[in-house]
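Complex 374.
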Amino acid sequence: MGDLIDHAELPRRDCVLPWTRLELSTRRFLGPCCADFQREPVRVGGSFADAWNGSVQRSFRRALSRAGHPETCRESCPTLRSGRERLAEMQLRGGSAPFVENQLMVLEDLLEGREQVRGQPLELMVPPTTFCNYDCLMCEWGEVGTLEDELSAEFYDALAPLLPSVRALEVAGGEPLASPIFRDFLLRLDRDIYPDLRISLVTNGSYLSPGHPILERVPFSTIIISLNAASPETYAAVNRGLAFERVRGNLDALLEARRRGSLRGDIIYSMVLLKQNRHEIAAFVELAERDDVRVRFMLPMFDRNRQSVMTDEQTMREVLHELDRAAERLNERGETRQAQGVLGEADVLRERLAQRLFEPLPDGRADPQDEVEP
Ligand code: SF4
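Predicted structure with iron/sulfur cluster bound:
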């Protein structure tokens, strides 16, 4: 948008997600983004589709249409800090007529700052299950996740009316591919009915074995592999799942499918920054560079297994230094958007160091393991 319209003429929207995206979290919070950065995440009744113009989404739109910091959002939100979802950064895509028309409607909603919108979401995020076959140090789902909360076939049927205008259906978990219902949904997606729909998958990669039909048939926009390590030793210590060599075989299958053209989306290697892996930040960037994939770093939420890098000054300074170096390297390679994402995480660290705040993220929320599930 910033290339089409002079920045000075664009209304200020520091984050467009309330107009473009709807997320259902593993804990059944609903909103435009990750509940960890919403000031007061709430669970709402009713259908997923109804939430698009429901009270939560409207409160975010109201807050993001006003000047000043949006009261719905935490100061520590890396999306807000990096500016990667500002209106000027928004991209419009070509496609079928209904798909393009919907984007124009969304844009009109955004420019007008409407609370009740006419456009349909461009991105949806759903968690197929909390079950996971790994037990990563920083994530509780390996321990407490269950297939009993698997999203049902009826849930995916109810999504169908939204899908023609959706450009990305994002899925995370738990391990999304551990859900048989979700795998079936993926393999049944009819590209003639949804020509513009792409899937964005966050996965530990263990199910994507060479020759898996998902790699051949599913229209991915992105596959994010939670690798969290650049060496077999750190991989074993952090992820506590398959041996690195097996996952390396799956990564090679992904790269090969991309080379053949059956897999068109971006591949991203993701690392949650922990005490156990922080010494491999530079090596992780190099690994991604060697495999010609994108890279993503994330600050940890909570302090599971005492692994948060947010709890002592020395660790925070070391991680900040490494992130700044990683962003520099990405900028040198012309990967400015990736560098911007890394700097968004780095800025959260920088500010907490300046405030001498040595506590796990997110601020003001109890560890979910202490919460009573609804
Ligand atoms: S600014 Fe952050 S918390 Fe607010 S809507 Fe955007 S991503 Fe969510």
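Residues 1-99+109-119 form one domain.
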